[in-house]
Amino acid sequence: MARELSLRLKEDFTYKSGRIIGSMCSEPHPFAKKIFANYLEKNLGDSGLFPATAELEKEAIKMIGSLLSNDKASGHIITGGTEANILALWAARKSARKERCQVIVPASAHCSFDKAGELLGIKIIRVKLDNKFQVDTKAVIDAITPSTIAVVGIAGTTGLGVVDPIVELSEIALDAGLYLHIDAAFGGFVLPFLRDMGNDVPVFDFEAPGVCSITVDPHKMGLAPIPAGGILFRDEKVRELISWNISYLAGGEAKHATIVGTRSGASIIAVWSLLKHLGREGYDRIIKRCMHLTWKLADEIPRIRGLEIMTKPTMNVVGLTSHTLDIKQIAHELRLEGWAVALFPRHIRIVAMPYMQEKRVDEFLEDLKSVVHKLGQ
Ligand code: 0PR
Fold first, then answer.
1. Nearest residue CA, atom 10 of ligand 1?
2. Alpha helices in 9-73 (DSSP H)
3. What are φ and ψ of residue 230, in 5° steps?
4. For a substitution probing ligand 1, which of 112, 157, 162 has the most ligand atoms within 8 Å of its CB?
5. In contact, 76 and 119? CB cutoff 8 Å
6. Does an H or E element contain 361, and which?
7. Above 80 in pLDDT, residue 377?
């Protein structure tokens, strides 16, 4: 079977190859992989059977909460950023108790907000960005109507890793009595460590008083095995809004505040262990390496004639674009060379993930140069 599987799975990309250069997911940390494999039977859908695992989830949330300036946060390790964003809008809708609901999101918001909108019957209003690709806060204010229940800010956009002006959004939300959710699915495991290293990181988390919940995914920059998303609510009261009592379980009565019922305890144990194992210093070291590669890419790309970067990177995401060449063609040629880049409408996204080696980044830059040269002829 091992041989058959290796043959059948040959066509898949691997992170080890260093060829996946545009993804926000990563090869899980080897330590977390081992832990994960040991606890596959744990199910937090029936937490009464696994109270010790449930306790580790509380501790993991507390650890992540303290990275985000709130060790009183309440929440769950769930399937991913999509589930987290849906849960946040669900909590917002419950707290607003309105018939017609609208949520204001930046134009750069991840498509999971559109999924949430359809599922929850909420109209998603996308507002424009400014010239730094941050949400235009004046446009947010202008978009508020009596049906608005929430505002979303992003700390690490999907396309460019940009952080919205969260303090301003917090003031707007508090003034208007609106729920504020921050999508830090990617940036939540980057920004606290950039701050540790003395970088000037604007407030993006629970330190801003209007923030009610944050999405933060261990399976992106946290290096945890999939599935491991995270939803953190400011306190237990917000989580309670979407909590369901299940009375008949084998483990006794339990409360679910997640979309799924049966859910992986192994994910949670892996996240808890990895947070303890790496500690802040471990993550600091990883982010430092990623940023070194990011600066290399951001320096080298504009040196290639015809190419430029969309904006100075805030975190380990680089947007490559061109005024003279078609980026679709560049992405196509790079793919033919075996590079898995992400293609957005106006740019190609490169993410300097922890598994990437400098050698591979140099090879990528060489191939990029050749592709651009060929297309420019
Ligand atoms: N929020 C942000 C800011 C994201 O970038 C992503 C995923 C999510 C939420 C959703 O996270 P999950 O995939 O864990 O549910 N962005 C990833 C990326 O851009 C993966 C992705 C891409 C997921 C497209 C879904 C999708 O339709 O690589």
1. 81
2. 30-38, 51-67
3. -145, 135
4. 112
5. no
6. helix 358-376
7. no
Model confidence pLDDT, tens digit, residues 4-14:
999 999 999 99
What is the rounded CA–CA span in Å between residue 71 and residue 94?
24
Q: Does the CB atom of residue 137 touch ligand 1 within 6 A?
A: no
**Residue 8 CB burial class (10 angstroms; 0-12, 13-18, ≥19):** exposed
Check if the beta carbon of residue 287 is closer than 8 Å to that of residue 133.
no
Question: 96 by DSSP, 3-state: which?
Answer: helix
Residue with tokens 């508020």: 144
- Nearest alpha carbon, ligand 1 atom 3: 158
- Global pTM reads 0.97
Q: Is 341 in the pocket of ligand 1 (CB under 6 A)?
A: no
Whether 116 and 69 have beta carbons less than 8 Å apart is answered as no
Which ligand 1 atom lies nearest to the CA of residue 80? 14
Helix (H, G, I), strand (E, B) or coil at 353: coil
The set of residues, in sequence order, having a beta carbon less than 8 Å from that of 140 and lying 6+ positions away, is 104, 127, 151, 169, 172
DSSP 8-state secondary structure symbol assigned to residue 67: H
